[in-house]
Amino acid sequence: MDYHSIQSEKAKAMMRFRRLQNIAKMWRLLELLVAIAVLSWSSTRRPLALKLAGQFVLQLYEYIFHPFFNFVIGNAIIIVVVLISRKNNAGDNEISDPFVENGDALNHAVSDELTQIPEASPAEEKECENKQIVISENAVTESQCDAVSTAIEEATKQIQRFQRTQSEN
What we know:
Layout: H1 2-43, H2 46-64, H3 67-89, H4 97-115, H5 122-129, H6 142-168
Keywords: Membrane, Transmembrane, Transmembrane helix
C-alpha cells in the first residue's frame, strides 16, 4: 500500500510540474507576442521619434556651448572655490588644528628642556676661551666684493648705451 501511495503522489507531482512548465511556456509566448506588437506599433512612429530626439540634442548642444552659459558656470566655480577657502581660513580647518596643537606642545617641551640645561663650570669656560676662531674658506674677500661692484658698474654702463642706441633708432 505504501508503494501505491508513493506512486500516486509521484504522479500528482509530475502532473503539477508539467502544468507549471506549460504555464511558463504560455507566458513566454505571450511576452513574445506583446514584444512583436510593440515593435510593429513603434516602427510607424520611429522616424518621428528620431527626428525629435535629434532636434533636442542639437538645441542642448547649442545651449551648453553658448558663451554666456560658459561664463555663468565659470563664475559659479570661482564663487564656490572662494567660499570654500573662506570657510577653511575661518578657523574651521579640521586638518591643520591637530598639527598646530602638536607643534605648540613640541615648542613647550623644547623650551622646558632649554631651561633645564646646567650651566658650565669655570673650568669648561676656560677651555672655551682658549679655542681659536677659524675663518671659513667660503667667506667673501674684499677683492671679490670689488670685482662684483665693478662688474655691476660695467653692466649698468652697457645697459645705458643700449638704451641710447635703441632710442636713436
